[in-house]
Amino acid sequence: MYAYYLFLGRGDWGTSRAKTYDPTFGGNVATSLLGDWGPHRKGTKLSAAPEWSSAWSRDTWIGRVDFLADVLKADTLALCMNGFELPYPSALFSEAVELDHANVRLDFLGDVLAHARRRGLGLVAQFCTTGHAEGYALAHPDCTTIGPDGKRHATNLCHNHPLGQTYAEGVAREMLTRYPGFTGVSFHPPENAVPCWCEYCQAEFKRQIGRTYVQAGAQAISDFYWTSCLAFQRHLEELALSLVPGAAVYAITIPGRFEQDFTVVGREIPKTTTILHWDYWSYGHKIPDVLQSLRLFRSQGHQVGFIPTSGWSLDKCGPDYGQQVVEQIRAVRADGVTDLMYFVGAIWHEPSLRATSWALHGGGG
Asked: Is the pTM here over 0.70, yes or no?
């Protein structure tokens, strides 16, 4: 697999309610994550800001697909189908829709997917499970996770709460039914590493373990959190396979957390699920750490792929950023991991896409 992973909407990079705009929307407003395009980036102009994918028209998307196939020699397009908000006109969760998304105003995604298939690209539908759900969480704050300090998470839904489950299941079912033609599905567990202390989690812990949170230690609570979280993820994978029979199944890692807890995490991920490890910044002297992580993730018999980055922010790393990514990929391939899924995200920046391409600079696809 030689894939590129784009966000259909803004993903976890802002919401339409926060007005995360760029010039394609008629003006750029600062966000807590990205900031303005210009002030902190020397030599850049606001008018030269790259385009948010949520603003692309049908024709722009088709042109991007052609670029991936013709220039970057990709064989697969992976799309983040949800995120903070939903980039399609959802009939089930209108309160969570990305209000200004081009595909919400005029639903053209089916045409884009059909064009990608005609160009020979495989299609992977990437879903967040119960994480990265700010739009739904704003409307239903009572189903978000609760930390041991009693504070609720702003974007993470509880996978043991009925409303959290309904949202994750509903989005996967609605999108895979609405947009046919996918050849793979992928699920991303919540990046929140703090166990949930809500009443549903505590009741399920008592049912499974026979003790209360107060009686149990922190490690037992953490193990339960990940075990139950990934059990729900398996349920979502089974749901997806019932809608897309024969699809390849992938799961993305949470760097650091998966390494720390892989004894538990690895047991909960089916061997038929390919683990995709992302590590955006581990270049040069950090490459041995990447290889160590990949070997750990293969230690229980899983197929493992790697997610390098090809995103807009790489050019802040200096003029040799593309070479660094290519060297990272060369090391990973030499260690036996050949499936690649470049992270692009919600912003298209062609110089980074070209500079980091293994097909253009690494000697092959």
From this structure: yes
226, with CB counted inside 10 A (0-12, 13-18, 19+), is buried
Using CB atoms within 10 A of its CB, is residue 54 exposed (0-12), middle (13-18) or buried (19+)? buried
C-alpha span between 188 and 11 (Å, rounded) = 12
> What are 124's two structure tokens?
């992977």
Quick: pLDDT tens for 239-274. Answer: 999 999 999 999 999 988 899 999 999 999 999 999
Integer Cα distance of 201 and 136 in angstroms: 20
Contact 27, 325 (CB under 8 A): no
SS3 219: helix
Range list of β-strands (E), the chain: 2-7, 51-52, 76-80, 122-128, 144-146, 152-157, 184-188, 248-252, 273-278, 304-307, 340-345, 347-348
Residue type, position 197, single letter: W
Q: Which two tokens stand for residue 223?
A: 């193990």
